[in-house]
Inverse folding.
């Protein structure tokens, strides 16, 4: 794994590891294990949404028509671009181009931020259209179809959970960018970028699953 | 009693004598003594002690709640307390014992302490994550305790919707949030173990040289990783349902309350093996050590651990035979549940065969191990009764179920926990406990346990439903017997707490290997130094390299 | 109140052929259990003595190949237990398919009472009277949380779900009175949500339908409603909420908060339950009672008022509660 790294780029061995290779292997396996559990977390949620769709197709379609398809589609593109910039950051870190890496990371965080802004606007539009059935004081636009309420609520649970992951991801990314801008970072913690990159791609992947399951198949 | 010398001539010479380590570097307990050094510890052994102290506290809370339950059931008409108090007592008992004692009990304490030692590593792969998982655990515990202090919860530990979402007027939300958070601590611990076992093994420590304890913890960790996220989702939906009434478990909005049961048991049945497998690992260490004989059928026992962890994902439906599940689903789940008997039988028969022609010492850990085998067998086979569809229709949700899972959880996990605690106590603390007191307590617990729970099998078959604050008068005699047994059991629990704590200051200093046991954890001093081994440990030729070898060692390793 | 049982009973009464066969199944299974476990227990004890440290015993390996042993003790117990899977499954499928000529009794579960309705229209609360010698199918649903109807005497239970019907059928062949429970935990009064099932000769059952079923059960049914709707929780003496006692209320003069005096007749009781506050508030009390409009069906409201009419004093109320149950035996 350490092949393909430029001079002066690497990982400082923590005391309890025998070798850097072991440390890298542990970090990679660890993040994959974590991502598998996260994927299962979302999968259970998507499964419930699909069960709802199968049991109440008309209500689900009626509710899905209110989702802002184009905002969702734009957000998909935004996140795919952010995965691209994150991959560039990883590549730059391997080559030891610290400044370029920091810029790519900032671009990634900015795209993540853009996603959240668009999502926030989408939520606002939903609110405006009376599409927030969990608010007890605000009447729901599709009150006559009870299962629509269920589907819309599931949409909120799934997208809020994803947004929470993205928000945490951006916070971590900014903190790491701040550290990565300092001299010597790449010689000690290059694998942080690699490990973090996997997490970012995962957030992207969850949205790529969520978008068709919530927006597309129900139209 | 336990001589530190090896049995004449047969034991392999230890490469480094523990005496030489004394005075060179302090052990992990004495490395630092500030409060900060404990609460910010990254040493897996210290974190194990933090867990041990916390789960002991939760065990006491859970046991007190059980005491309240048994007190209430002395009389049939509910004269001692209101139905509400009773319902809250059994809910607290269940929630605390399952989520805050049984699930973390052996993995988070012994697993944390011993896995790096057993595989010859300096620590777990992610020490800071390990500490984080303890803080996550305590945060979850705090939420749950807040709900208890505010007035309690009355939904039962299973939190079935719609009772928990729309009908209960108690503090369900904080308890649910607490349990959700604790799930993350399980995930982090499991992740740490999986990565450690994969990547941190000492040179020469191949998979089939790992102690069964490590195998069972590996299997347990896989369940942590693959099942816990599903209960997290289920609980998040349950929280959203209760707080915002999203409709997912409410038939009025097209939701389905039984869906929660499916999601719940998809985790909670595997969770039974989170509680059982580590105990099997403990027994698989104790039995060979006190028989001084190689574990019989090592590979079968190792595969059986993985087998149990796999089968357990496909049997959750056996909790719902009478809940309107389709008949076909019930048939399939029933048949699959019978398959669980195969790996379980492998374990029990192999332990028994290990004792055969051994050189037995009946010290406290071995007494617990023998008790475990007996009670686990009874608990396991009564599980097959419950998996039998026609019988299940009668004894589902009766005291038969209560007796069955207490035979597994208390007779199994708690006895293994206590056995392991005594077995590794010298390693954890560097002190020997009082052997006579240990044996007396072990016998008291075995006796008290059976008097408490055996009558419940009969009560269940007679048709006494569980979770009943009041019951028909004809069941009183058996209930009083059960409550009487609980007092014996309580005495059996109190003694170890006293003499173990006493031994911390006044116990005899423990040698590195008081039981003359095999395994890398016994190759270092008691208690071990901060990074476990002063020189890299030498991995033995075969696992369980005891003086008396079973025939198969020639078949499989020769 | 309780069916006549010994203080220490070791085997439950079985009133149907399925129940008897279930008993046979569990007994046979127990024999197998003993065959599988007793050798383990005996072996452990024997080995513990025979091979204790320092004893003179032959510890030479016996030379038996272990793979063969392993496979035999993996498969033999498993195959033996499969017999019981098949037997249990057969019995289960049988008990899931009710014969078409079964008499259908509707059962509704609610926190915390059961309501049964006979095919001829009579209904009863918590107690159930059934004829023997005829297949009976209980058609079960819940109005709130998940409950489960459990009849130990026929060895059967099934959940009462809020969104769909479940069925439970059996054919009793012995007369007698047995327990009837809720077996799925359903909240505060879970343990009192139940009563008795009485199996009667078909002739007695017809008799019961025409007399007791229509008349005598009514006051007891009203009392059950009085408790199930939570009236008792506030209006019984000694409750935490000091609401006025309803014993002897019917027909008496009540002073209201606005100074008027009214006679507590049937109409006033009805209004008071459906719209308790406003200008109907009794003097000296606060507006705390919730409205039951829309929460209590008309027929149950009638039954409840009938009970209140007969509820002349606390003692009389208790008697009213005890009588019909006694009468059914």
């Amino acid at each position: 794994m350490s092949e393909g790294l430029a001079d002066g780029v690497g990982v400082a061995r923590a005391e309890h590891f025998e070798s850097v290779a072991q440390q890298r292997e542990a970090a990679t396996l660890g993040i994959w294990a974590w991502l598998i559990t996260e994927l299962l977390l979302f999968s259970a949620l998507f499964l419930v949404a699909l069960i709802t769709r199968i049991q109440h197709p008309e209500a689900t379609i009626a509710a899905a028509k209110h989702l802002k398809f184009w905002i969702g589609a734009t957000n998909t593109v935004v996140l795919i671009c952010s995965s691209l910039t994150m991959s560039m950051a990883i590549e730059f870190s391997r080559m030891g181009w610290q400044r370029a890496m920091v810029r790519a990371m900032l671009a990634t965080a900015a795209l993540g931020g853009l996603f959240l802004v668009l999502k926030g606007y989408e939520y606002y539009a939903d609110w405006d259209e009376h599409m927030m059935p969990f608010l007890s004081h605000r009447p729901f636009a599709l009150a006559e179809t009870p299962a629509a309420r269920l589907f819309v609520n599931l949409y909120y649970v799934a997208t809020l959970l994803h947004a929470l992951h993205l928000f945490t991801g951006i916070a971590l990314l900014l903190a790491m960018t701040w550290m990565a801008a300092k001299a010597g970072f790449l010689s000690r913690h290059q694998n942080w970028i690699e490990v973090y990159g996997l997490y970012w791609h995962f957030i992207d992947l969850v949205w790529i699953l969520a978008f068709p399951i919530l927006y597309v198949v129900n139209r | 009693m336990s001589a530190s010398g090896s049995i004449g001539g047969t034991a392999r010479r230890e490469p480094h004598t523990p005496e030489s380590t004394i005075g060179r570097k302090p052990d992990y307990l004495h490395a630092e003594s500030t409060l900060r050094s404990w609460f910010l510890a990254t040493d897996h052994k210290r974190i194990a002690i933090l867990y041990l102290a916390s789960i002991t506290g939760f065990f006491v809370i859970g046991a007190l709640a059980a005491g309240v339950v048994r007190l209430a059931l002395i009389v049939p008409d509910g004269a001692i307390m209101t139905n509400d108090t009773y319902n809250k007592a059994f809910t607290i008992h269940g929630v605390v014992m399952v989520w805050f004692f049984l699930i973390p009990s052996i993995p988070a304490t012994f697993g944390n302490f011993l896995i790096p030692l057993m595989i010859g590593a300096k620590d777990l792969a992610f020490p800071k994550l390990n500490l984080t998982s303890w803080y996550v655990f305590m945060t979850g515990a705090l939420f749950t305790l807040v709900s208890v202090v505010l007035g309690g919860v009355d939904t039962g530990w299973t939190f079935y919707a719609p009772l928990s979402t729309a009908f209960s007027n108690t503090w369900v939300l904080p308890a649910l949030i607490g349990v959700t958070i604790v799930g993350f601590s399980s995930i982090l611990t499991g992740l740490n173990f999986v990565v450690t076992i994969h990547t941190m093994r000492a040179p020469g420590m191949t998979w089939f040289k790992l102690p069964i304890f490590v195998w069972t913890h590996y299997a347990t960790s896989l369940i942590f990783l693959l099942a816990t996220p599903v209960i997290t989702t289920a609980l998040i939906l349950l929280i959203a349902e209760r707080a915002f009434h999203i409709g997912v478990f409410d038939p009025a909005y097209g939701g389905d309350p039984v869906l929660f049961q499916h999601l719940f048991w998809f985790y909670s049945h595997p969770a039974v093996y989170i509680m059982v497998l580590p105990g099997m690992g403990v027994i698989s260490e104790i039995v060979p050590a006190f028989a001084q004989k190689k574990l019989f059928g090592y590979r079968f026992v190792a595969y059986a651990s993985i087998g149990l962890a796999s089968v357990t994902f496909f049997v959750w439906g056996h909790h719902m035979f009478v809940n309107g599940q389709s008949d076909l689903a019930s048939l399939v789940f029933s048949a699959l549940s019978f398959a669980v008997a195969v790996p379980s039988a492998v374990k029990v028969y192999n332990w028994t065969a290990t004792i055969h022609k051994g050189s037995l010492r009946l010290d406290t850990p071995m007494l617990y191990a023998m008790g475990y085998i007996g009670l686990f067998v009874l608990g396991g086979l009564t599980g097959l009764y419950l998996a039998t569809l026609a019988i299940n229709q009668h004894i589902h949700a009766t005291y038969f179920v209560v007796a069955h899972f207490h035979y597994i959880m208390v007779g199994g996990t708690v006895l293994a926990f206590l056995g392991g605690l005594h077995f590794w106590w010298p390693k954890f603390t560097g002190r020997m406990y009082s052997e006579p007191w240990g044996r007396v307590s072990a016998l008291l617990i075995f006796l008290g346990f059976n008097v408490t729970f055996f009558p419940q099998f009969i009560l269940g078959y007679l048709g006494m439903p569980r979770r009943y604050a009041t019951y028909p008068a004809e069941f009183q005699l058996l209930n009083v017997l059960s409550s009487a047994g609980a007092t014996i059991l309580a005495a059996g629990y109190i003694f170890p707490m006293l003499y173990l704590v006493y031994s911390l200051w006044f116990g005899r200093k423990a040698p590195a290997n008081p039981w003359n046991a095999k395994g890398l954890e016994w190759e270092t001093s008691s208690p071990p130094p901060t990074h476990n081994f002063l020189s890299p440990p030498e991995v033995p030729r075969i696992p369980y390299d005891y003086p008396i070898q079973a025939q198969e060692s020639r078949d499989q390793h020769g | 109140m309780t069916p006549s049982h010994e203080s220490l009973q070791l085997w439950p009464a079985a009133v149907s052929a399925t129940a008897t066969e279930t008993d046979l199944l569990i007994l046979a299974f127990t024999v197998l259990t003993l065959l599988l476990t007793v050798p383990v227990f005996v072996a452990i004890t024997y080995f513990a003595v025979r091979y204790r440290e320092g004893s003179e015993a032959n510890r030479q390996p016996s030379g038996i190949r272990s793979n063969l042993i392993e496979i035999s003790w993996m498969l033999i117990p498993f195959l033996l237990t499969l017999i019981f899977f098949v037997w249990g499954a057969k019995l289960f499928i049988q008990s899931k398919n009710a014969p078409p000529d079964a008499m259908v009794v509707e059962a509704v579960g609610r926190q915390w009472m059961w309501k049964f309705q006979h095919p001829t229209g009579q209904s009863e609360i918590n107690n159930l009277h059934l004829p023997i010698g005829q297949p009976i199918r209980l058609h079960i649903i819940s109005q709130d949380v998940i409950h489960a109807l459990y009849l130990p005497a026929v060895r059967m239970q099934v959940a009462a779900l809020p969104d769909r019907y479940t069925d439970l059928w059996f054919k009793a062949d012995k007369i007698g009175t047995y327990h009837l429970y809720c077996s799925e935990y359903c909240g505060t009064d879970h343990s009192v949500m139940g009563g008795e099932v009485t199996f009667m000769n078909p002739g007695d059952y017809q008799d019961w339908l025409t007399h007791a079923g229509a008349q005598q059960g009514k006051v007891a049914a009203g009392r059950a409603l009085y408790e199930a709707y939570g009236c008792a929780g506030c209006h019984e003496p000694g409750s935490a909420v000091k609401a006025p006692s309803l014993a002897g209320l019917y027909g008496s003069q009540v002073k209201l908060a606005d100074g008027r005096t009214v006679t507590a007749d049937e109409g006033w009781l009805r209004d008071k339950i459906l719209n308790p506050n406003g200008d109907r508030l009794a003097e000296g009390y606060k507006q705390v009672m919730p409205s039951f409009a829309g929460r209590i069906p008309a027929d149950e409201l009638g039954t409840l008022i009938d009970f209140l009419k007969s509820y002349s004093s606390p003692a009389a109320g208790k008697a009213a509660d005890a009588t019909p149950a006694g009468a059914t035996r």
Q: What stands out?
A: The interface with chain B takes residues 15-17, 22, 25-26, 29-30, 33-34, 36-42, 44-45, 48, 51-52, 55-56, 59, 133-134, 136, 146-147, 149-150, 153-154, 156-157, 161 of chain A (CB under 8 Å). The first helix of chain A runs from residue 20 to 55. Chain A has a mean pLDDT of 89. DSSP finds six helices and no strands in chain A.
